[in-house]
Each structure stands twice: as C-alpha cells, then as structure tokens.
C-alpha cells in the first residue's frame, strides 16, 4: 500500500551511538537493554533490543545504529523502551541491525 511522503516524514529516524548494553533477564525473548546517545538535541535514551542471539555486548557498544525516536515509550517487562532500534532479517534468519554506511552525526535524521 503506497503512502504519501508526508506519512513517511512523520517517522523520525536518527543515527545514534550505543554507549551501554545491559542484560535483560526479565524479557520474554532474549534481549538487551541498550543505551543510545542521540546527540545533544535528543540526549541519551534506552531501548530493548531482541539482539542477544545475534550480537555480543562488546559488538554493540561503540556501534552507530539507526533508531525511530518519536514512538511512544513502551513498557517491556517493567523496562521503559524509549526508542526503536531498526533491523532487518539476516540471511541466516537472525537479526541484522541497520547502521550508517559511514560515521554519522549523532542525532542525524534519516531522509
């Protein structure tokens, strides 16, 4: 179903830097709590990421990722997820997180 550009423009996707990753044993699906620095305008926010099968914590910290920042916060097993990290299915059936192809400005908007 096609959408108008105005609909797409309402989804605020930004580049962020993973600054911390914590275990999330209360989550139903194996997940991490991921802290993302979105630059001075948006600050630091947290996300729940079902990435535990596909990424080690040391592979995530220091990595730039793309995230949707204007969704309502979501309560996941008592944890408030403030942003949605973007990913696609990998060839092996796992998760492939979306990353900028070059170092991006923190908080830079996806167009």
Q: Mind sketching the topology for me?
A:
Layout (H helix, E strand, L loop, with lengths): L4 H5 L3 E11 L8 E6 L1 H4 L1 E6 L7 H4 L3 E5 L5 E3 L2 E3 L2 E2 L1 E3 L5 E3 L14
Antiparallel strand pairs: 1-2, 1-4, 2-3, 4-7, 5-6, 8-9
- Mean pLDDT across every amino acid position: 97
The whole-angstrom Rg is: 14 Å
Q: Describe the sheet with the most strands.
A: 5 strands, antiparallel
* Main sheet strand line-up: 3-2-1-4-7
Tell me how many strands there are.
9
Distance between the termini: 20 Å
Number of helices: 3
- Secondary-structure class: mainly beta
Q: Which outline best applies?
A: globular
Helix content: 10-25%
What is the succession of H and E elements?
HEEHEHEEEEEE
- In the predicted model, the low-confidence regions spanning at least 5 consecutive residues are none
How would you portray this structure in words?
The protein has 111 residues and is mainly beta. Helices cover 12% and strands 38% of the residues. It is built from three helices and nine strands, in the order H-E-E-H-E-H-E-E-E-E-E-E. The chain has a five-stranded antiparallel sheet. The relative contact order is 0.26. The model has no long low-confidence stretch (mean pLDDT 97).
